[in-house]
Write the structure tokens for this entry.
Amino acid sequence: MSNYLQLYAVDKVFHTKTGDIQALSNIHLNIENGEFLSVVGPSGCGKSTIMRIIAGLDKPSNGSVEVNESELKGIADGAAIVFQKDVLLAWRSVLDNVTLPLELKGITWFDRSNHQTNRAKALELLESVGLKGFENKYPHELSGGMRQRVSICRALIQDPKLLLMDEPFGALDALTREQMMYDLLKLSNKYKFTTVFITHSIEEAVFLSDRVIVMSERPGTILKELPIQLTRPRDNHTRSNDIFSENVNEIRDIFQSQGILAEN
């Protein structure tokens, strides 16, 4: 793998009416092409702020962000975001929600002659996440997990080089969440995008990732970068692997040493 994106000495301070809040402190991070990177930490530690800075939605207060050795000065080209809430448009069908990014980009370049090609790609994505036959349904007719699958398809229709996911499974029940992890691994393997995945779940981070970034409480700093040596493809048996347990326990031990997790 080669370096794709770098954060150099990134700080982030939010200026509020009641005073300044430092969200991030001295973040150094290299992300490689095709890597699946998870960021795990307590609420309010700046995980989502890191994602927004990588996306170009927020600027660092200090430090810099580089993509392919060029400073990021605006919205990151080739990035797509999946948020915790699916934010689908209620008046558009599943298929029309998936193809929406292409229509928005069509203000400048969308070629109507590609309509059938884009439709075929959208249908292929929906089928890959188990939603074949649901393309003409509307968001209110879908479960939470199905709506989030549509959100992922909407991101992938753009052929992103970088997929940013901000706790995308946080609102789902346990079984749906597990299925979504398998779906994401399958899509990641097929489309080979780089992934930055924000989560509170230690087990989720270890199961999905090539590397896990462990964050401190606010102001967020990186406590540990933990390579995950589990082989791929990963399945239900991965959780019984000794390496899985060792990685999960190591992250828990870090949080306990910081007083973020307490047994009593």
About this structure: The longest strand covers residues 3-16.
